[in-house]
Design goal:
Blueprint lengths: L1 E8 L4 E7 L36 H13 L7 E7 L4 E7 H14 L10 H4 L8 H21 L9 H22 L6 H18 L1 H13 L5
Antiparallel strand pairs: 1-2, 1-3, 3-4
Helix pairs in contact: 1-2, 2-6, 5-6
């Protein structure tokens, strides 16, 4: 994986962020801010121990983005170009939408054991995905996993119960990460990006059936029975 996000703000300032399979850590652990420590607002379902991990992997991965945009207005327009190994995407959009897309990818590839469940989707990252696209990709990817489970003579989960449970675990992580950065963001861009990302994950857990009905109407031309 090799993805770069290039931001150009309206005042001409630019920022670039690169995501690879092996993120480079350039900051010594003793120089990392307090909010990145593992025991600071640690997720209730975190499997990591403070005895072996001093810092939260997801928080450390998000740190450069939070630092770059913590004082910025979420609604300002930015020009964003995303380039991966296969193609490029470009969009003029709100900083909030651009950060939601970038932070989602960074979280999935951060090394967090819970967020790692999203890494297979991150390999086929879709920048600026809408709610419908998020649901479509989540469900499609999960069903493909179940097909491979069946091919391996294991019991598949065609009822998507595991998908709902997975997103419930992810919600706990999203909530804790939101709490982590709340104290450092004077602007609202990072907070709104996380809230938007959290709401999309919540839609899989709390309203999957209604989301599937909406997709059924769009794909088949009629609602599910």
């Amino acid at each position: 994986m090799n993805v770069s996000y290039n931001f150009k703000l309206q005042d001409g300032r630019t920022s670039e962020f690169r995501i690879t399979d092996q993120p480079v850590r350039v900051v010594a652990s003793e120089q990392l801010p307090k909010w990145t420590r593992l025991d600071h607002c640690q997720c209730s379902n975190c499997p990591l121990s403070t005895s072996s991990h001093t810092h939260c992997p997801a928080a450390v991965e998000m740190l450069p983005v939070v630092e770059a945009f913590k004082d910025e207005d979420a609604y300002q327009k930015v020009d964003v170009k995303v380039v991966d190994d296969r193609r490029s995407y470009q969009k003029e959009t709100s900083l909030e939408e651009a950060l939601r897309s970038l932070l989602g990818l960074k979280m999935a590839t951060s090394g967090c054991p819970v967020l790692a469940e999203l890494k297979p989707m991150a390999v086929h990252h879709l920048p600026f995905a809408s709610s419908d696209e998020f649901i479509m990709r989540s469900v499609s990817h999960y069903l493909l996993q179940q097909y491979f489970e069946k091919r391996s003579h294991r019991e598949p989960d065609w009822e998507l119960k595991g998908l709902v449970e997975r997103n419930q675990r992810l919600q706990l992580v999203n909530q804790a990460l939101w709490q982590r950065i709340h104290s450092v963001c004077q602007g609202d861009s990072n907070l709104k990006a996380l809230l938007n990302f959290f709401s999309m994950a919540s839609s899989v857990s709390f309203s999957l059936e209604s989301q599937l009905r909406k997709l059924s109407t769009k794909i088949q031309g009629e609602p599910m029975p």
